[in-house]
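Hello, quick one for you while I still have it in my head. A protein chain has come my way and I'm curious about its shape. Can you walk me through what the C-alpha cells say about the fold? No rush at all, and the record is pasted right below.
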Amino acid sequence: MEALRKPVGAYLVLVAIAVAVFFIINPLLADEIEVQDVWNVLDILMVIALALGIVYAYLGKRAVDAEDGVTRSYLEANVIFFAVAAVSVLFLHNWFSLLADGSIEAGNHQAWVIWAFVDTALPLSLGVLGCRLWRGS
C-alpha cells in the first residue's frame, strides 16, 4: 500500500479537480454538449476515488487512533475519514437512485441539492486527502 500512496494521491487530486471544474462550468456547457454523458464518466471516476479515499483515510485514522489524547494529526485524520465517508454515503445514495430511475426530474430538488453538496464536498475532501498522500503525511 505504501508504494501506491503517491499514485493514489495524484488520482484523488485529479478527480477532485475534474469534478470541481466541471461542476463550475457545467451550466455554461449545457447548450453545447450533453453534460449528463460527462457526469456519467465522472461518476465512475468518483466511485473509484471514493473507494480509494475510504481505504486510505481509514488507514490514516487507524494509524493515529492509538495516540494519547487529541492531537492535530488525530483530528485531521478523523475529520478526513468521516468527511470522505459522509460524501460516499450521499454520493452512492444519489448514484444508485440515478441508475435505478434513469434520470433526475427537474422538480426533484432533494436530489439536486445532494448532488450540489457532493460535487462541492468531494473535491474538498478527496483533494485534501490526495495532497496528504502525495506529501507522505
Observations:
- The chain has a mean pLDDT of 90.
